[in-house]
Amino acid sequence: MTPIEAINAELISCHRCPRLVEWREHVADVRRAAFADEQYWGRPVPGFGDPNARVLVVGLAPAAHGANRTGRMFTGDRSGDWLFRALHRAGFANQPAAASVDDGMVLTDCYVTSAVHCAPPSNRPTAEEQNECSVWLGREIEAFADLRAIVALGGIGFDRVLRIGRLRGWSIPVPKPRFAHGLELAVTEQITLVAGYHPSQQNTFTGRLTEQMLDHVFQRARTLIAAG
Question: Total structural domains in the chain?
Answer without folding.
Answer: 1
